[in-house]
Write a structure and sequence with these properties.
Blueprint lengths: L1 E6 L27 E6 L11 E4 L4 E2 L11 E4 L7 H20 L4 E5 L8 H9 L2 E5 L5 H4 L1 H23 L7 H15 L2 H10 L8 H4 L37 H15 L5 H47 L4 E3 L3 E3 H50 L11 H8 L17
Parallel strand pairs: 3-5, 6-7
Antiparallel strand pairs: 1-2, 2-3, 4-8, 5-9
Length: 418
């Protein structure tokens, strides 16, 4: 068992073309220096176990695991490195379930380096209780005695860098955590072959057990080399007409036609040795140009298929919102899928509940409007404008209305002067 750190988007050797006045502007561009740790375990018979991925974060995000990785375990660590709790969880979740049935009660040997988190009391107690023999490598010897370091991790990182290059050719500018599983999974399948794993155990002398295999590879003192002097080397001169002149490989249709005419007109009629050699070189260039054209067409077709694949994967990542699926320090892929489904059901229920509230609110508003209509009519009846005042006596008004009133008091007529 060993762990390795994988830089998300750091390539091996990158050459770029920049201006002479802004040579520092490119430094750090398009490179996320985020390190993701992976715990891997291989066996002497060529098998390997599921990994545990340690995210440099405090919580698990839903869009980090859109690529299907059944059986994988995921952990979160603020320091992005393993600790005693993660080491114990790796034993309980990955190593013990995967090797117990195959061991059939026999002791299981687990070889690891001398990192302090591998030798905590909790880890040792679990190993003793489950018949696991924990073996520790001597200090500063993992580059010679650790099979993962000897023959597995180097092709793993080379394969991962190749996956990153392919994704960048597809138009992805920045590699993030959401891309890691889709890049690391095919890299593991390419690097963790039975041949590489067995070669790692054999080169480290562990299985088959052969200490001389390591001792023979130790550096030895350099022997005295005899370098001949310049005056002792015989250099023969050759004539100018015997010097081969390599023609230029055509890169266009015009160049290809010109080379064809050169072969037909100049080289076909000559039969001496020099012309034969020239004819061979010209034919070689013609064949090479044809091969380049065919290879370029095949690369274009492959690149188009790759772009379609990248676009399909990007659609899945874009459709998945970055939600917190859990705050557990270690969680499995199946648990992440279950948490994602529960979160989707919860969101759907909340949306349906909110829609029902809006419908009921509209219905109650309509009922209130219907109930308010007769009141409005009654109010209009009562609020009709008063009729104009008529010049009439009290008795006339009473007669019109039909109300009985008391007779008015009698008054004597007023005398008038003529």
């Amino acid at each position: 068992m060993d762990k390795t750190g994988v830089m998300l988007s750091m390539l091996g050797t990158v050459k770029v073309l920049v201006g002479k006045d802004n040579m520092r502007d490119y430094r750090g561009a398009r490179v996320k220096r985020t390190l993701v740790t992976a715990i891997e375990c291989i066996s002497g018979d060529g098998r390997y176990l599921d990994p545990m991925i340690i995210w440099p974060a405090a919580t698990h995000r839903s869009n980090w695991t859109t690529f299907p990785t059944p059986g994988w375990q995921y952990a979160c660590s603020d320091t992005r490195y393993t600790d005693s709790y993660i080491s114990l969880q790796w034993l309980q979740r990955i190593f013990d379930p995967a090797t117990k049935e195959r061991a059939r009660g026999k002791p299981r040997v687990l070889i690891c380096d001398g990192f302090g988190t591998h030798e905590t009391p909790e880890v040792l107690e679990f190993c003793f209780a489950n018949n696991i023999l924990l073996c520790r490598l001597p200090s500063h010897t993992s580059h010679k005695l650790q099979p993962c370091d000897v023959a597995v991790f180097s092709p793993l990182k080379a394969a991962y860098r190749e996956q990153v290059k392919r994704l960048e050719r597809g138009g992805v500018n920045t590699i993030g955590k959401e891309h890691f599983t889709s890049l690391y999974s095919p890299a593991r399948e390419k690097a963790f072959t039975s041949k590489n794993i067995k070669a790692g155990f054999a080169a480290s002398g562990l299985f088959p057990f052969n200490p001389d295999r390591v001792l023979r590879s130790m550096p030895k003192p350099l022997a005295n080399l005899t370098i001949p002097k310049a005056d002792e080397v015989n250099v023969e001169a050759c004539r100018e007409n015997e010097l081969p002149q390599t023609p230029v490989t055509p890169v266009s249709a015009e160049g290809l036609a010109s080379l064809r005419n050169l072969i037909i007109e100049q080289d076909a009629g000559a039969l001496d040795e020099t012309s034969k050699r020239n004819l061979q070189r010209h034919l070689h260039k013609l064949a090479k140009a044809t091969q380049l054209s065919l290879a370029e067409g095949a690369l274009h077709k492959k690149h188009i298929r790759f772009l379609l694949t990248v676009n399909s994967e990007a659609k899945v990542r874009r459709s998945t919102t970055s939600l917190v699926l859990g705050k557990a320090k270690v969680i499995g892929y199946e648990e992440l899928v279950e948490a994602r489904e529960k979160r989707a059901e919860k969101d759907a229920a909340q949306k349906a509940k909110g829609k029902g509230k809006r419908d009921r609110k509209r219905k109650s508003a309509a009922v209130d409007d219907d109930a308010a209509k007769p009141k409005t009519k009654a109010r209009r009846v009562t609020e009709e404008p008063e009729p104009a005042v008529m010049l009439a006596t009290t008795s006339t008004v009473a007669a019109v209305v039909g109300i009985e009133t008391a007779p008015a008091p009698w008054r004597a007529p007023v005398a008038r002067m003529y």
